[in-house]
Specification:
Transpos_IS3; 3 domains; 11% strand; 5 strands; Nucleotidyltransferase, domain 5
Length: 307
């Protein structure tokens, strides 16, 4: 029991006339000055700060105090992490601790290729959910493993191999083709026409071992953030509403949400900082086989229209 809590209980006993203040202090083992202490009213600056901390904490319930501090500092508040942590504790806004997961035992298989620059390794996978009315939602997500940027979240009732190719063309057209793309052995990712198109586009595939999701940890971590910060907080009634809400969250994830592994930079901010770093693939003018026009020609070869 904290001294403040002891003081409240002792004050209650004295107010009810059950004992004197001296006896209450002796029984609860608190100093008499602590018993007589009157808390000071916070000044205007502290009030505004507490309101800002509460507002951001309620908006981002799964974010800890370092990320809330980052947002406050971007808004111009001259405040440190410890003060924000103390205020969140006083307001009872702490994020509950997660239950420790049972760790896999044995020798780790490791990753075949680790991304060391933007566009080096992309990863993609599916995540499932349902609307309030019970309608099925299937989402295709594409993430850059180096910058943690989410290039795509496509939401539909069902997604087949043809739809995967239709959608992956969109981020390739915007950001260029990656050198590798990592996935599990789902039927949509091992379909022959998709593999042939990726081979023609110069994109090498990395398939993880069956039953080994830890080998694709970047996309699994992203899915846990998507589920905690969006899917479990929103009531999605229709497919159209789900597409709008999830796309808004994707933009916030890329441009607003600080990322701990990026030293509290946002994925877009980190990508801009590392933009000048030499990339493993030359620009489009020096690699005509990967120009958008060439990729588009090979894309249309399979009689698929970009969606």
């Amino acid at each position: 029991m904290s001294p403040g809590h002891k003081r409240q209980v002792a004050l209650g006993f004295v107010t009810q006339g059950r004992c004197s203040g001296r006896q209450a202090c002796r029984y609860f083992k608190i100093h008499r000055s602590t018993f007589r202490y009157q808390a000071k009213e916070p000044d205007a600056w502290t009030k505004h700060l507490r309101a800002a901390v509460k507002r951001y904490s309620l908006k981002h319930r799964r974010w800890g105090y370092p990320k809330i501090t980052k947002l406050l500092q971007e808004d111009g508040w001259k405040v440190g992490k410890r003060m924000v942590q103390r205020i969140r504790r006083e307001l009872d806004l702490r994020v509950p601790k997660r239950k420790p997961k049972r760790r896999r035992q044995g020798l780790s298989t490791g990753l075949p290729t680790k991304a060391d620059h933007r566009g080096h390794v992309w990863t993609w996978d599916f995540i499932h959910d349902r609307t309030v009315r019970g309608g099925r939602l299937k989402m295709l997500t594409v993430v850059d493993e180096h910058t943690r940027e989410c290039h795509l979240i496509h939401v539909a009732r069902r997604i087949q191999a043809k739809d995967v190719l239709n959608q992956v063309f969109r981020p390739i057209e915007l950001h260029g083709a990656p050198e590798y793309i990592r996935s599990d052995n789902g039927s949509e990712f091992i379909e022959q026409s998709l593999q042939q198109w990726l081979r023609c586009a110069g994109i090498r595939t990395l398939y993880i071992d069956p039953g080994s999701p830890w080998q694709n940890g970047f996309i699994e971590s992203f899915h846990s953030r998507l589920r905690e910060e969006c899917l479990e907080r929103e009531q999605l009634w229709t497919l159209s509403e789900a597409r709008v809400v999830i796309e808004d969250w994707r933009i916030e994830y890329n441009h607003v949400r600080p990322h701990r592994s990026l030293k509290l930079e946002t994925p877009k901010g980190f990508a801009m900082v590392t933009q000048g770093v030499l990339c493993g693939r030359p620009p489009a003018s020096l690699r005509p086989r990967l120009d958008n026009a060439t990729i588009l020609d090979r894309y249309l070869t399979y009689n698929l229209v970009p969606g």
